Amino acid sequence: MKRFTCDELVGLITAYLDDALDPAEREGVHTHLACCQGCGRYFEQFRATIVALGDPPPEKLATDVRDRLMSAFRGRRR
Fold first, then answer.
1. Neighbouring C-beta atoms of residue 66, cutoff 10 Å
2. What's the Cα-to-Cα distance from 72 to each of 3, 16, 26, 53, 65, rounded to whole Å?
3. Entry's Pfam families (predicted)?
4. What is the pLDDT of residues 32-51, one digit of tens each?
């Protein structure tokens, strides 16, 4: 199992949700989310945003909306 820092995990959330990680990475993300309250909240917020938007592909979001969302997610970890 791979261990991830919080910053690394943030970069993997989309791949985790898309089931695009190898088994060791997926287990590492799952373990980190179970142990890190902050990353667990971040994951739930990210997932809630996807549900609220109806899961449109990023290229179908208006550029200003996509940029604001990405800025907000990046800013959460700072």
1. 14
2. 25, 19, 25, 15, 11
3. zf-HC2
4. 999 999 999 999 988 888 77
